[in-house]
Amino acid sequence: MTINPDAAKVVELIIASGRPPYPTIGHVAAREIFVASRAILQPDPSPVAEVHDLAATGPVGQIPLRLYRGIGTDTKSPQPTLIYYHGGGWDDGVCRDIANAAQCTVISVDYRLAPEAKFPAAAYDSVAAAQWIHDNAAELGVDRARLAVGGDSAGGNLSAVVALHARDNGGPMLKLQVLIYPSADMSSVYPSYEEFAEQLPLTRTTMDWFVDLYLKNRSEDAKDWRASPLHAKSLAGLPPAFVITAAMDPLRDEGEEFARALMKAGVPVEVKRFDGQIHGFLTMGRIVRDSAVAIADIATQLRKAFA
Predict the structure, then answer these.
(1) Annotated catalytic, 53?
(2) How many CB atoms lie within 10 A of CB 35?
(3) How far is residue 224's CA from residue 169's CA, in Å, rounded to a whole number?
(4) Pairing with 35, which of 17, 153, 193, 269 sits 20 to 30 Å away (CA)?
(5) Could you give the CA distance from residue 114 to residue 119 in angstroms, rounded to a whole number?
């Protein structure tokens, strides 16, 4: 398999930077490096019609949110809305671009992070934020009948968890779940983990470190559907899904297995694998042109679901 030329440039930059493996430096330093990389990988933020910060009521306090209103939206009527769960932060540019491309509202959720807040804190925050947005739709200018959830990596995991919780607890009713190279099964038993064990930016060692930071007890928690949506007893009755995977990503196989499991349960699913791509490419739009392609695909799926 040949790596996409743009993705290869990203890998070359990582190697040239001398960035040490995240597990060797600890989560605080890893976050600092991750934030610094955004300026190199993400394009300048696109203007939107409106952006402001909010706070939802969460299980242990306020959950920060940020609302983006896309250019061209009708601000006089309630807007279809994507509730977005990031894959580790710095989703501002992606949210802006989706809001503009889909001509909708996007609300990003700043859920609690591990290891300071271990599983299931992020899941609890994600569910609470979706419910709060639904309950306060009128004040937010949101159409509660046209809600979707979505996210990349860990955010794809949380989107699937929110959809499962909503199905089993009377809502919110969701039109679509957008799962971008999601973590769907933290048992990490899939062939792509071996095939791309050393593929930057997400090696198997780093992914194992992330999972260990997140879960309290890996052998038990990895079987919990709130950590591994593929372990849910049933996937029937979930909203339609759009699943994006990257061909050279350790998470590729579990994302595609989740898509197959959804289909088997009767859920309408569309899957798109980006050949030659690496984990995280959506937020690398300054260098990786497939980021813009993926955003356009997401916007198309949202417009169709909201129609």
Answers:
(1) no
(2) 12
(3) 17
(4) 193
(5) 8
Q: Report the Cα 77 to chain-centroid distance in Å.
A: 27
DSSP assigned state of 50: E
What is the rounded distance in angstroms from the CA atom of residue 52 to the CA atom of residue 38?
21
Structure tokens at 44: 């300048």
Which of these is catalytic: 249, 253, 290, 297?
249
Task: Please identify which of the residues 153, 159, 188, 192 carries the catalytic annotation.
Answer: 153
Closest CA to 178 of 42, 43, 305: 305
Is residue 74 among the annotated active site residues?
no
Give the DSSP letter of residue 69. Answer: E
Burial 163-201 (b: 16+ CB within 10 A, else e): bbbbbeeeebebbbbbbbbbbbbbbbebebbebbeebbb
pLDDT in tens, the chain (307 residues): 899 999 999 999 999 999 899 999 999 998 888 888 888 999 999 999 999 999 999 999 999 999 999 999 988 899 999 999 999 877 999 999 999 999 999 999 999 999 999 999 999 999 999 999 999 999 999 999 999 999 999 999 999 999 999 999 999 999 999 999 999 999 989 999 999 999 999 999 999 999 999 999 999 999 999 999 999 999 999 999 999 999 999 999 999 999 999 999 999 999 999 999 999 999 999 999 999 999 999 999 999 999 9
Q: Which of 279, 290, 291, 297 is catalytic?
A: 279
User: Cα(first)–Cα(last) distance of the chain, in Å?
Assistant: 38
Q: pTM above 0.90?
A: yes
Residue 116 one-letter amino acid: E
Half-sphere exposure of residue 83: CA atoms within 13 angstroms, side-chain side: 37
Q: Is 279 a catalytic residue?
A: yes
**In the numeric block, which tokens belong to residue 158?**
């949380």
